[in-house]
Amino acid sequence: MERNKRKMRNKNRGSMTVEAALAMPLFLFAMLALYHIHQCHLAQAAVYEACAEAAEYTAEYAFVGNVNPLIPQLCFSKYIDDEARIKQYVAGGASGVSFLLTHTEDDYLVLEASYRLRVSVPFFPVFSGKRHVKIRQRLYVGDTGGNENESEDETREKYCYVTDNREVYHLSRSCTHLQLSVHAVSDRNICENMGLVPCAFCGGMGGSTYLVTDEGNCYHKNPGCSGLKRTVYRVRRSEVNGIPPCGRCGLEEGD
What we know:
- By secondary structure, this protein is α+β, with helices and mostly antiparallel strands.
- The chain has two domains: 2-138, no CATH class; 152-252, no CATH class.
- It is 33% helix and 19% strand.
- It is built from five helices and nine strands; from the N terminus they run αααβββαββαββββ.
- The strands form four sheets. Strands 1-2-3 form a three-stranded antiparallel sheet, covered by helices on one side.
């Protein structure tokens, strides 16, 4: 009888060992998964915070001239508070966050960033997923000067936008004549084949990225170069008598 009891106890001990050997890896994997999920959420929060600060910094350029959509890409990394986490969980680190969709809408900067989260666990394939951030930031263009009860048409009748040369006046701050389209080029030979010459202010600077515009005959190296900016003034319509309207946005006036 005693012998049978000892056999049963030994058998139970063996089954518990097998169950523990099977359950422990699953438990550890679940804990590891929860840890990485939490870290991914923290990485997303860090990216969003840095994007928000980059959007605010970019919007400040509207006060002195045109907004360059390349600015967020260039200043994003300096606003990252947790660089190690982003480097581990964002594919490509800070340079893996793309701002190609950033643009302006009237008096707002719409910053759109895309990146890919990745989780690398030993003995398992790399898990990854695409993420998107969209931030709408008011441009630093000063007080609109309009009454909240006034319609947009009434406001446009009172104010317009002009540049230093004052050849025409514009009804929209986002008119394509006021917004220089800037493109990044990685090879100087491409610039030369387009008939472009170095900018007198920043063309001699170092770096492997060249900045060109749809209009103009120079290529630039510094995104903050004055040649890539256009000073725009918001003035009353009564102050621009004798100046014709813009051929694009001025057609919206209808008078």
